[in-house]
Amino acid sequence: MYNRDMLSEKEICLRLNRKTADSSQYTYAVMVTDRILTLLIFASFPISLAVLFMRRDSSLLRCILVPALFLLLVSLFREAFSRKRPFETMADVIPLIAKERPGRSMPSRHVFSAAAVAMVVMKVNPAAGMLALLFAAVLAVCRVCAGVHYISDVLAGFAIGIISGFLL
Which residues of 112-123 are buried (b: 16+ CB within 10 A; e: fewer)? Predict the structure, then answer.
């Protein structure tokens, strides 16, 4: 049942972006958080692969190939459907993270990759993997606040990353 008082996804994205963009402190916090979490999560990928290699873990090849295959599929989907980003569809949205090419918003490849890497980290260390998943979720919020993704983009990316992890 639809409730007239509920905000649409576009309205939520616009409000989050405006709240963030209207404050230099929030803008800075979102940009720095996005950058730091991206670096932490993606640095953990080669480290996790190295640990799997040293353990002679039989899942090492799957931990390389499955995320790579899913990344390819996500990229092809994005190219084929090329959903416009919030700042492209709403004049009041200010992109806080530079994007060189238009469209290609759904699903969020950034959030997918972070969730997929977190699942690899979880193979090595479940506690660190849960922390990495939390970081991926915070990264998803940053991408919405920055005006470069809709909530459905980041949720889809997160879900696909988790699903890829079940195949490791």
Answer: bbbbbbbbbbbb
pTM over 0.85: yes
In whole angstroms, give the CA distance from residue 19 to residue 35.
20
Look at residue 2 and tell me if it is in a domain. no
The Cα 61–Cα 39 span in angstroms is 23
Using CB atoms within 10 A of its CB, is residue 99 exposed (0-12), middle (13-18) or buried (19+)?
middle
Rounded to whole angstroms, the Cα distance separating 55 from 136 reads: 26
pLDDT in tens, 20-41: 999 999 999 999 999 999 999 9
- 125 φ/ψ angles, rounded to the nearest 5 degrees: -150, 105
State the distance between the two ends of the chain, measured CA to CA, in whole angstroms: 38
What is the domain extent for residue 70? 12-165
With tokens 């090595």, the residue in question is: 124
Contact 34, 143 (CB under 8 A): yes
Tokens of 18: 């405006």
Total domains, the chain: 1
Question: Looking at the domain assignment, is residue 80 inside a domain?
Answer: yes
